[in-house]
């Protein structure tokens, strides 16, 4: 087990990518604190793992983050800022309160939680911080302004924190593309539009998290963003290419 007795916090750790990250860290020997608004999923995980502690709360709330940061008994070796939500954009429309809430979850929380750990001397020397961003930070579909802005902000926060924490912690980001978090039956077209011939799995993201947390393997890497999208963001598609046609044309 490569992370025996290490301490980790994973936000949004009860479902989807966050859950798989948490479970893999546990498999590798770490003690894991997760926070999530899904109380049933969180309690289920806590009941099945001795080294997991579930904290029920919303990372958008300042007071919740302050309590969470005081929860670990020892300094944290790994912080995975995974939690985020959508809520649409200009077409929904996404209200002022909705847009602001998404930024609080996706950008403010990673900043403030990191700040609290630093101020309280609860970030271990040589710690690794991994921010789960998205390819939506670089490319969009309609009506995704709130989420895309949050992920873009998280990428900027990543390199800023990497510089501020130089010598104390490494900070990197992962930008997943289309990831099946469970139960989706991909058809041939879904797979074919990816240069690698398939859609992503949570394991694709988990393995990069493990790599970035492992100081022996990734100790020379900080401030970077790793796009894991099967090459989809590198594929140029024009009207008429590969049989694809813009409707109405």
Corresponding CATH architecture: 3-Layer(aba) Sandwich
Number of domains: 1
Cα distance spanning the termini: 56 Å
Number of helical regions = 8
Mean pLDDT: 94
Q: Report strand %.
A: 15-25%
Helical coverage, percent range: 25-40%
Instruction: State the total count of DSSP E strands.
Output: 9
Give a structural overview.
The chain is globular, with a radius of gyration of 18 Å. It has eight helices and nine strands. It has one domain (7-243): Rossmann fold (3-Layer(aba) Sandwich), CATH 3.40.50.720. It is of the alpha/beta class and 249 residues long. The model has no long low-confidence stretch (mean pLDDT 94). The longest helix has 24 residues, at 96-119. Helix 1 crosses helix 7 (202-213) and helix 4 (96-119) runs parallel beside helix 5. It starts with 6 loop residues before the first strand and ends in a 21-residue tail after the last strand.
Question: Keywords for this structure?
Answer:
single chain, 249 residues, alpha/beta, Rossmann fold, seven-stranded parallel sheet, two-stranded parallel ribbon, 9 strands, globular
Characterize this entry briefly.
The protein has 249 residues and is of the alpha/beta class. It contains eight helices and nine strands.
Task: Annotate the secondary structure layout.
Layout: E1 7-11, H1 16-27, E2 31-36, H2 39-48, E3 52-56, H3 62-69, E4 76-81, H4 96-119, E5 123-132, H5 145-164, E6 169-176, E7 179-180, H6 188-192, E8 200-201, H7 202-213, H8 215-218, E9 225-228
Parallel strand pairs: 1-2, 1-4, 2-3, 4-5, 5-6, 6-9, 7-8
């Amino acid at each position: 087990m490569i992370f025996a007795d290490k301490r980790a916090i994973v936000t949004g750790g009860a479902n989807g990518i966050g859950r798989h990250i948490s479970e893999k860290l546990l498999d590798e020997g770490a003690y894991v604190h997760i926070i999530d608004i899904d109380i049933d999923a969180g309690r289920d995980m806590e009941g099945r793992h001795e080294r997991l502690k579930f904290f029920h709360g919303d990372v958008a709330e300042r007071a919740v983050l302050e309590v969470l940061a005081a929860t670990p008994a020892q300094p944290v070796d790994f912080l995975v800022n995974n939690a985020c939500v959508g809520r649409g954009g200009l077409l929904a429309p996404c209200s002022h309160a909705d847009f602001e809430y998404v930024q609080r979850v996706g950008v403010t929380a990673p900043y403030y939680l990191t700040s609290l750990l630093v101020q309280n001397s609860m970030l271990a020397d040589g710690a690794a911080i991994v921010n789960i961003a998205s390819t939506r930070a670089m490319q969009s579909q309609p009506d995704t302004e709130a989420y895309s802005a949050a992920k873009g902000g998280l990428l900027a926060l990543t390199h800023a924190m990497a510089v501020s924490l130089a010598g104390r912690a490494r900070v990197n980001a992962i930008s997943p593309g289309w990831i099946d978090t469970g139960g989706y039956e991909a058809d041939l077209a879904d797979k074919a539009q990816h240069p690698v011939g398939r859609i992503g799995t949570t394991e694709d993201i988990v393995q990069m998290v493990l790599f970035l947390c492992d100081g022996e393997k990734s100790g020379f890497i900080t401030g970077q963003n790793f796009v894991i999208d099967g090459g989809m963001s590198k594929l140029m598609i024009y009207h008429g290419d590969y049989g694809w046609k813009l409707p109405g044309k």
